[in-house]
Amino acid sequence: MAELSRRLGGPIAALAVAAVAIWLVLLVALPDLLMIDYSLRPNLPPSEIGGPQDVHSLANYAVLWSNKIHLGIFFRTIWASSLVTVITLVVCYPVAFYLAKVAKPSNAALLVLLLIIPFWINEILRTFAWYIVLAYNGPLNRVLTGLGIMARPIRWYGTAGVMVGMVYAYILFMVFPLTNAMESLDRNQIDAARDLGASRWRIHRRIVIPHAKPGIATGCVMTFMLAAGSYAVPSLLGSPSSRWFTEIIYNWFFEGGNWNLGAAYAFLLLLLCIVFIAVMMRLFRVSLADIAR
């Protein structure tokens, strides 16, 4: 607060802090508290709300553990979201390193622009574009069969389609944190290691990756949370065998009409994301300040 006051002045700093506090209370804390309250109460008709049966319990949470299908989808969502995070990191790391340490400023600006332009379009429309590309008679199958790579078209919808769609949808949330972390690395360290005979892999393992840990942690946290909470991509590019946990939550809220059970499922997903953040902080040995930097 003192640093903010010094930079912006007392009144502006106080206004900024108040705005952030209001945003956190109204859009984060209160909705989460309301969701927790809903999740602990039974699904009752309006006439019975507030009556003797309207008591708080963990019954809604127990439903997930007793429903083997939903529990399997829950763990599959964890695994698939983790896989999306790893694939996105592998794809984005070389791009981020090129932007931060290899490309000229003009080339880097052009590449950033090319990355950003597709995201001017709504996520649903971009997902529909992949729906067309991955169709059974779509461009991808036609190109692969035309080149003789495949004997006949295959169905991409399902796990493969969801993975492709999510990696594409959240690529910027991995590229920018990585680039931001790598830009602060002194280029002389890389040149010195190369002059001393270090291989390219050793340079990245011993110099670049340790320096970029905050960016890696931030990108992984953002990508995992967005992937685990995604609805549009799995609903459009998925199949019955690749259902996402968010689809179950949506069904409870808007098709089953059971907001209490949907709130319990949603809160469990929120807890999963919090645990993932803690694991990333522990794994990369970074603090919340490093992630927010």
From TrEMBL:
Query: Among its keywords, does the record have Transport?
Result: yes
Q: What is this protein called?
A: Spermidine/putrescine transport system permease protein
Give the UniProt family note: Belongs to the binding-protein-dependent transport system permease family. CysTW subfamily.
**Biological process annotations from GO:** transmembrane transport
Keyword Transmembrane helix (UniProt)? yes
Report the Gene3D superfamilies cross-referenced here.
Answer: MetI-like (1.10.3720.10)
Q: Which UniProt keywords apply?
A: Cell membrane, Membrane, Transmembrane, Transmembrane helix, Transport
Annotated ABC transmembrane type-1 domain residues: 74-280
- Any Pfam family: BPD_transp_1
Q: Name one GO cellular component term.
A: plasma membrane
Where does the record place it?
Cell membrane
| Membrane-spanning parts | 12-36, 73-96, 108-134, 154-178, 215-233, 262-284
The upper taxonomy is: Bacteria, Pseudomonadati, Pseudomonadota, Alphaproteobacteria, Hyphomicrobiales
Q: How does it sit in the membrane?
A: Multi-pass membrane protein
The family database entries (InterPro entries) matched by this protein are listed as: MetI-like (IPR000515), MetI-like_sf (IPR035906)
